[in-house]
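Meet the record:
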Amino acid sequence: FFAQHRQALVAPEDQKFAHPSGLAGEKAGPRVWLKMLRVHQWAKNTLIAVPAVLSNTLMYADVPGRVVLAFVSFSLLASCIYIINDLIDLPSDRLHKTKCKRPIASGQIAIPHAIMVAAVLFAASVCVSLFLPLAFRAVLAVYAVLTTAYTFWFKRMLLIDVLSLAGLYTIRVIAGAAATLIDASFWLLAFSLFFFLSLALVKRFVELSATPDTGLEKVKGRGYRSGDKQVLGEAGMASTFAAVMVLALYIDSDEVKLIYGSPYVLWLLCPIVLYLSLRIWVLARRDEMHEDPVVFLLTDWRSQIMVVIGAALVIAAAAF
């Protein structure tokens, strides 16, 4: 492995980072290490709290503690897998206009150090999971296997990659249900699958937009060609409307009437979800979208306002 990636790590354009040994660069500060761990991506793991929030059980005795432990366990494992992914993608990352600045690809953090940190993160994740039900550890194992398969194989397969990404987001919801011993609603899982499939398709759409037109040749490291953008856009829009349809059917179900005192307040969630998803697609087509649409949703102030309004609607539907 070292022999394969040593030359790429100390390419001429990054000699200012190169250590004489060819493995490390200038001493990395805390920000560099946090960047390697992709701590900002931990926000995705807040999906673990969704089952408890929607079932109105978040304030029950040990539920908040279970949610926090599940969040920590998932976040540690996610950072471990991000490091592994960066090591596997090292040659292609160096050729990417933005990914070449990642700590490992730029040579700021040595490969041996990255491997050691990944091992520690994995062990810590497993240790934290021991305080949660066996069902959670089973879901965590499935997540680890699926993510590893995505890193090595699935992300290079046409459409399998986006379906895998949607599944990984949905697994977070299932993990939250397993950690808190709450039954995962069929409606919630169906909505999650379609909604996150749309966001995964946005991610690929943006990647293709930033890639030079190679004609009939596949984009390096992916199963797509530059001419596939149109199909991905159409599929993403269809997934958005499918998610909203599932949400509408859920709101009209008997299950919701048993949980919420004023379920019809929840109908306002439909236009909110439409706004969030369609705005992302508009910005993606304008080439104004962040590469990761989930991170964009969590950092964009307009999206944050919509999320707060949605949360207020859920609280109001339950309280009145």
